[in-house]
Amino acid sequence: MPDIMNQQNLFVLFTFAAGVVSILEILEFLFTKNIPWLVRLLQKAWRRLTRFFRKRQAGLTMILNCSGHPVHPAQKSAIENLMHWQEAEVLNVALGNVPEDEHFIPAIEKAIDRLDLTSKDWEQPIVVIPAGYAPIWSVLQPILHGRLGHFPDVVRLRPVDPLTGVRYEVAEIMPLQQLRHESRGKR
Questions:
Q1: Contact 66, 128 (CB under 8 A)
Q2: What range does the domain containing 105 cover?
Q3: In whole angstroms, what is the distance from residue 1 CA to residue 157 CA?
């Protein structure tokens, strides 16, 4: 009877077990540490797919949400009513925690780039829910102006209950481009 537990067979068995463990560790790393990356990848693919089919029906209208808070269905329908749109797609601009050093403009540009909008998409009607932090919004405005070719319409939200400030409703749509044209006559 041959000796199964010799040194060479144990080495092969150990190597095989180490390979299996390392593959499992790599898979665990990919699926636990990179879940946000995978979710963003799936969201982008789903958005492209829905955009492809929606464009066939009618022009795509978009709500760019830069506020960092979710857009509630009542807010979305109020925006659609004020803009006279049938249906709009909400795109959340994931600004996250913008670094507070002297170079936070590239982080904001990357957040806009991550939307993965084509030049045709930028030509569609767009309304923006602004960021509440003034330096971010002051950088977002020229970026959006450069991509759109004009100032976007902006949603102004107000608290439903001013004391708690928990729920917000759409107060108005501010047409910045129209305001710019009217203001030029006052120079």
A1: yes
A2: 59-184
A3: 83
Q: Is residue 87 a part of any domain in this protein? A: yes
Q: Work out the angle at residue 26's Cα, subtended by the Cα atoms of residues 20 and 31, and round it to the nearest 5 degrees.
A: 125
The contacts found for 11-15 with CB under 8 angstroms, 24 or more apart, are none
Q: How many domains does the chain contain in total?
A: 1
- Provide the 3-class DSSP secondary structure of residue 178: helix
Q: What is the DSSP letter of 118?
A: -
Domain membership flag for residue 106: yes
Long-range interactions of 174-180: CB distance < 8 A, separation 24+? 176/151, 176/152, 177/150, 177/151, 177/152, 177/153, 179/151, 180/151
pLDDT digits (tens, 9 = 90+) for 6-48: 777 778 888 888 989 999 888 887 777 666 767 777 877 887 7
1 strand-pairing partners: none
User: What secondary structure, in 3-state letters, does 128-154 show?
Assistant: EECCCCHHHHHHHHHHHHHHHCCCCEE
